[in-house]
Design brief:
Layout (H helix, E strand, L loop, with lengths): L1 H14 L19 H4 L12 E5 L2 H12 L5 H14 L9 E4 L4 H7 L3 H13 L2 E2 L4 E3 L11 H7 L4 E3 L2 H4 L3 E9 L3 H12 L4 E9 L6
Parallel strand pairs: 1-7, 2-3, 2-6, 6-7
Antiparallel strand pairs: 4-5
Helix pairs in contact: 4-6, 7-9
Length: 216
């Protein structure tokens, strides 16, 4: 049985070889990035709010952009898997009840066909033996744009943009809030505040990548 499974795995890799998530180079083993692209990834070593795998840049940002805008939902699980050891270094399954992805506006969800943060959150929820709760939060206003704004303006821009649709699902729960990228943290803060106001016991935050470009 083991040799049969190995044979099918080998056959699948021949028929559909793995490619680098950033540059599409063929990979000779199961990995997210080729060696050259992997060398451009800088691991995050700062504080843990939010927990993060790496700095936004290099091949990591290329992979995230492909997931978000390049119709590559297949990259979500692999990018989410990067977060698993980062989060498990701080939290155990006994510490978490729910994994909640930051929502995207409905019109964008329909256009894209998926919420990239939900795809990232799925392997994390599995590792934590927690429920992936995709219906607790919703984003109301698809016209809100954050690019180029500082943290203060982003927070103002997001007032009323999110709604807690199912307070009973989060009341008394320990939550990990997941997003793809953290810039100023305004989006994560708005969602965290809403969850706590709705009765969540505690909210931890986790992202694949962080950037500090707009901290002023």
């Amino acid at each position: 049985m083991r040799w049969t499974a190995l044979a099918f795995t080998h056959l699948a890799e021949i028929l559909s070889p793995s490619r680098c998530a950033a540059c599409d180079s063929l990979l000779d083993r199961r990995a997210l990035l080729c060696a050259i692209c992997a060398s451009t990834v800088l691991r995050w070593s700062g504080d843990g709010n939010p927990l993060a795998f790496g700095h936004y840049g290099g091949a990591l940002s290329s992979a995230l952009l492909r997931l978000k805008y390049g119709n590559r939902p297949d990259l979500g699980a692999a990018l989410g898997q990067l977060l698993v050891p980062v989060v498990l270094a701080h939290l155990t399954p006994r510490d978490v009840d729910l994994v909640i992805p930051v929502p995207v506006p409905y019109d964008r969800l329909v256009q894209r066909g998926y919420n990239q943060s939900a795809l990232i959150g799925r392997p994390l929820a599995s590792a934590l033996m927690a429920r992936l709760e995709t219906r607790a939060l919703a984003r109301k206003d698809g016209s809100v744009r954050q690019a180029g704004l500082n943290r203060s303006d982003r927070l103002k821009n997001l007032q009323g943009a999110f709604v807690l649709r199912a307070p009973k699902r989060v009341r008394g729960k320990r939550v990990v809030l997941v997003d793809d990228v953290r810039t100023t943290g305004a989006t994560l803060q708005a969602c965290e505040d809403l969850l706590l106001k709705g009765g969540a016991d505690v909210v931890a935050t986790a992202v694949v990548a962080r950037t500090e470009l707009f901290e002023s």
